[in-house]
Amino acid sequence: MQQAADISGEAVEIIIVDDRKENLFAMEAVLADPAYKLTCLNSGEALLDYMLNADVSQVAVILLDIQMPGMDGLEAARFIKSRKSFRNIPILFVTAHSQSESGITNSYSTGAIDYLQKPFNPDILRYKIRALVRVHHYQQELERANRRLRQKTLELEKNNMMLAAAEEKLNRANQELEQTVEKRTASLVRAYQEIRQSHLLFHTVFSTSPCMLAIRSVEDTFIDVNDTWRELSGYSLEDMNEMSGPYLDMKVLKQETTFTGGANAPFYRNTKIQFLTKAGTVRFGLLSEQPLMLEGVPKLLIVILDITEKEHWESQSARLERLHLIGEMAAAIAHEVRNPMTTVSGFLQLYKRQRRELTEESVNMMLEEINRANSIITEFLTLAKNKSSDLQPRSLNAIVQSIFPLIQAEAVMNSKQAEAELTPTPDLRLDEKEIRQMILNMALNGLDSMEAGGTLRIETSLDGACVNLSIADEGCGMSEEVVQKLGTPFYTTKDSGTGLGLAVCYSIAARHNASIRVETGCRGSKFIISFILPQQPE
Predict the structure, then answer these.
(1) Order of strands, edge to edge, in the sheet holding 266-276?
(2) Less packed terminus of the chain by CB within 10 Å, N or C?
(3) Spatial distance between the Cα atoms of 348 and 51, rounded to a whole number of angstroms
């Protein structure tokens, strides 16, 4: 016997409704098959509840007993057939009672497709169920085919609409293309005229430019040089192409900006150079190079702005400024040294006229004034001397720790406090004596600026590629005018100061390639000295 599983690989649901358990068990045993999912219910009400709440899309047939208490099979069949979603499910009535011809007709009128008398032949039941299952599969396949057909129909209609729209769009595109071709042709004519005008303008600018201009090919052949090039360098186009080595014996002095072009070729921008003319004269200029396309071929435009006269005037101006500064410093030194010398001279003249012996008090006062003059000269020489510092790898924290007891003692003597907070930092290239002098000068300045009870803080920290040394006081702060003049020789806000202490500090920082930044306010001032970390060898 052919198995139901051979009809389709898809399991279908068969609902069996009977109020007697033995009948349910019997039909379940007859219809047992892996291709069937059998759902057994014991009343018409249970059938309606199941149909309304379960997924019945795979129900192939309902085996429905007619005679049941409560809602009988005929009422249940009428309800099922009244629903649109259920009316296509075939119903096979099963009853143990003999039916008259009118009863059978009444059963079929409810929508049933067949009628089976109990006791039934198991093979007949299986054959009927298999036929109904096959019909169910055919219906499902037909529905899928209808859906595909409807989808294809919709796609065909959509394609037809798209084809019509595309045809219309193509017609518009053809019209637009014709108009575009006409506009483009006119645009090309104008572009050609503009390019020709641009070439004429470029040639005019190139020829009359006050800068030295040259065009060179990628093969390092000079194509053209302008009149300024020939006048200032003395070299013609033929001379440039016969020259070996760097053209114009050019030397780069200061490179502001360099960028990389194609094939890793270096191009210069605003690069200060020195070049030699044909007559052997040394001149200076700013070199810029710009890649460009001429007639579709890559070229290099070389621009040299001659700054020889500017360099000459800047040199003269710098020399005059140095002379002016020397004059100002000489006047300041004379003023500062003259005061103690005047005191000593006055005492000596007084004792010379009165012919008396010098008292110890007078001698001490003269020595004090002479020592003051000597201190001013020593600090000035420290500021002015151009010596190379003894830079060795040293720990900044160790230098601070070595001098901190002296600073702390000075603070205690004046009823003030000194604190140090040192963060581990890498070694720096330092001149220990100069760094000690700088720290001591700044620390004493900070202590002098504070009232009794104030605290001086010395800190070190690591900030990226820099090591920072900060010295902060709790004084009254400084005005912007004072900040602007910090480090100026002989400028001081103290009654007894020489104005050289901070100038020496700035000079020491410069020799260590360090910078000094000042933060000030009503709660005090902070001097931050930033040392650049030495580069590690790769």
Answers:
(1) 222-225, 212-217, 297-306, 282-294, 266-276, 251-260
(2) C
(3) 134
CA atoms within 13 A on the CB side of 71: 17
> For the sheet containing 59-65, what is the strand order?
36-41, 12-17, 59-65, 91-95, 114-117
399-458 confidence digits (pLDDT tens): 999 888 888 888 888 899 999 999 999 999 888 888 888 888 888 888 888 899 999 999
For 92, residues 6+ apart whose C-beta sits below 8 A from its C-beta are 61, 62, 63, 64, 112, 113, 114, 115, 116, 128, 129, 132
Return the axis-axis angle of helices 360-384 and 501-511, rounded to nearest 10°: 30
Is this model's pTM higher than 0.85 or not? Answer: no
Question: What DSSP state is assigned to residue 278?
Answer: T
pLDDT at residue 102 in the model: 60
User: Quick one: 525 exposed, middle or buried, by C-beta within 10 A (0-12, 13-18, 19+)?
Assistant: buried
Q: What is the CA radius of gyration of the chain?
A: 54
Structural element, H or E, at residue 415: none
> What is the C-alpha to C-alpha distance for residues 95 and 75, in angstroms, rounded to an integer?
15
Residues 6+ apart with CB under 8 A from 270: 256, 257, 286, 287, 288
Q: Please, what is the Cα angle at 515 between 510 and 521, to 5 degrees?
A: 130
- Cβ of 227: how many Cβ atoms within 10 Å? 14
- The candidate with the shortest Cα–Cα distance to 485, out of 514, 518, 449, 524, is 518
Range name among 29-43, 314-328, 508-522 with the lowest pLDDT average: 314-328
